[in-house]
Please model this.
Amino acid sequence: MKIELDVHTHTLASGHAYGTITEMAKAASEKGLKILGITEHSHFMPGTCDDLYFMNLGVVPREAFGVKLMLGVELNIMDYKGTVDLPGWLLKRLDLRIASIHGNLYQSGTKQENTNAILGAMQNPGVDIIGHPDDSNFPLDYETLVQASKEYHTLLEVNNNAMRSASRKHVRENIATMLKLCERYDVPVIMDSDAHHMVDVANFEHTISIVEETGFPKELVLNYSAEKFEAYLASGRARG
Model:
């Protein structure tokens, strides 16, 4: 089975990444991807683009070097209710919407409070994917999240970049726990590179390793079928 998509990446517009849309798309083509998602950080992240950037994404072609481009946002989860930092009317205009906890913008609470924050984002019809739910600095109830992923049709992410971050705690162990629960409840996941440079587009070194180590079924990993991913995304969008 061949990887066909990577839908969480960043360009220069995010403020701390180092490639252009063209450069990222070219890298995706060279690595044989069918779909590349570019999801810039939303406006509360220091140094990133403002709302006008997202409002104007309609001018960007959605195909380059034979790769389909899906352009969107990595939202910040701001509080225990799961509030995100772009309005719903703007989210509806984007191809992809990832919501993530970032430690510089979110004050970690109890396991229940952090879980409630993710649940609130999952219930938002403007959110497609929960980014890197794997850091024990922000403890989570994974069984609750996996069940909610199935209920709200919001994908949980297995993030390659997070697995090599020294600042995050117990990432590999948490992902293993999440994958075992996803297998139990028959819940699909999405692997993402979270690339901030062209060299890391479609870099799934660590994610593939943990998937293989846990024996997670490949049919539940949506990266192996662009058609399956797009169908899942469309059915999730139908809820709101």
